[in-house]
Amino acid sequence: MRIALLGKGGSGKSTLAAALIDHLRRTGDVPVVAFDGDVNMHLADLLGIHQRPLHPERAAVASMLEPALAGSPILGSLPPGDASFRWRARSDDPILAAFAEWNDERTVALMTVGSYEPDDAGSACFHSKLQVGELLLHRFDDRDGSAMVMDCTAGVDNIGTSLFFAADLDVFVVEPTLRSVEVAKQFSAAAEAHDRSVVVVANKVRQASDLEWIVEQLGGIEVIGSVPASNAVNRIDRGEHEALEEFAHECAVVFDALVARSQERVRDWDIYRRRIADSYVLACTGWANGAYGQDLLALLPPDLAEYAGAAAQ
After folding, report:
1. Residue 82: inside a domain, yes or no?
2. Is 195 part of any domain?
3. Domain range holding 218?
4. Taking a C-beta distance cutoff of 8 angstroms, is the pair 292, 283 a contact?
5. How far apart are alpha carbons 97 and 120 in whole angstroms?
6. What is the CATH number for 26?
7. Count of domains in the chain?
8. Which of 109, 191, 263, 272 is deepest in the core (most CB within 10 A)?
9. Which residues have CB under 8 Å from 43's CB, separation 6+?
């Protein structure tokens, strides 16, 4: 089960993601994987877990996930094949042991993509850093019913990478403002074009008219639940970690609805891998083959080799 939290900057998606993670760690039987793919790295502070940016360790991550491709340039959108290592939400999993940071109870494993460094000024794109996250997510085996909560980049930026296809449920957090609604509508239109559905959580609702206005403005996009403006959030923002559990209790009905909706969806792994392959081909033919001076389409798993042939035509 993979649930992605998205929303306009400032909508409250990171706080809701942290609260959902707290809810799942208390109600589940296996560790929850928390994935922070936002350029503004907030999950570590919200969860009280040490922060470890992974994009500098991309080569080490790739070598463990794709041992048969050692020495080859490995893009984040490369689909997994038979030789790929699949990791799981287990306390003894080698990927989590090597690259995750844990809470004290070892019920939450945090993976953080990272952010910009001073040397990136004027020259780096955050999508290049997200490749370590793509590699990890596309090889996460959650068939045991384990859960991952993804805190994604703000706005519609998630559309620009293969992470757009990684979640079972895309949850857009919308506050009662026109800008927040418009960003949700833009993301929903892109999702619909790729046969993906989006549900909305109305956040910072102070009165019934706020929720009614959001529903009206969204024009048919499903609002699965609402979260009231909460004093607990102010305490969380001041670093009071114990307030996170209080806020999670306030959101429990909405979170249960999100989990139930996500569990209703049975992932078609073949379709999932082919969507990633589409992204990979576009990257190879658009820039990567030229940048690396070799045909990276040759790295596609054998059962997806048809994509390389189609790209060559």
Report:
1. yes
2. yes
3. 2-271
4. no
5. 29
6. 3.40.50.300
7. 1
8. 109
9. 14, 17, 18, 21, 34, 36, 49, 110, 112, 151
3-state secondary structure of 172: strand
Global pTM exceeds 0.90: yes
Asked if 76 contacts 131 with a C-beta cutoff of 8 angstroms, the reply is: yes
Long-range contacts of the stretch 258-265 (C-beta < 8 A, 24+): 258/3, 258/20, 258/169, 258/171, 258/199, 258/201, 258/224, 258/225, 259/1, 259/3, 259/24, 259/147, 261/169, 261/199, 261/224, 262/1, 262/2, 262/3, 262/168, 262/169, 263/1, 265/168, 265/169
Q: pLDDT by residue for the chain (313 residues), tens digit each?
A: 999 999 998 889 999 999 999 999 988 777 899 999 987 888 999 999 999 999 999 999 999 999 999 889 999 999 999 999 999 999 899 999 999 999 999 999 999 998 767 766 676 676 678 899 999 999 999 988 899 999 998 878 888 889 999 999 999 999 999 999 999 999 999 999 988 889 999 999 999 999 999 999 999 999 999 999 999 999 998 888 889 999 999 999 999 999 999 988 888 999 999 999 999 999 999 999 999 999 999 999 999 988 766 655 4
Q: Does 293 reside within a domain?
A: no
CB 230 within 8 A of CB 168: no
**Domain-embedded: residue 121:** yes
Structure tokens at 243: 């307030």
